[in-house]
Fold:
Amino acid sequence: MNSIATLSIRFATLVLVSSIVLLVGSPARGDTVLHFEQSVAIDELGDGTYVMDMKFNASQFQEWQQRYGMNPSLLRRELGRGLTQYEITDFDLEKNEMEREVKITIAAKGVTRY
Structure:
């Protein structure tokens, strides 16, 4: 496995772990997200784009709304704390309240190094 792939996997793992803890709450509670998908794309310059799709049950979505729904900048700030070594250049949040779905897209510079 080349170094770019290794660093990409580290980036994805870091984002995934911090996101799950931040977005869903404590893993000790036993609540699991109904649907969780992630994807990471690294371009030829070493910049990365991370996309996370989640679907919550009613109580989880209500908790998420109370914590982040009215203040997406809080979500960006908390995710940014877990990714301090990267320069976050783009953050996009899409919500579908009827289906209780959330899609987060993060673009970061300098995800990989040669």
Notes: The chain has a mean pLDDT of 77.
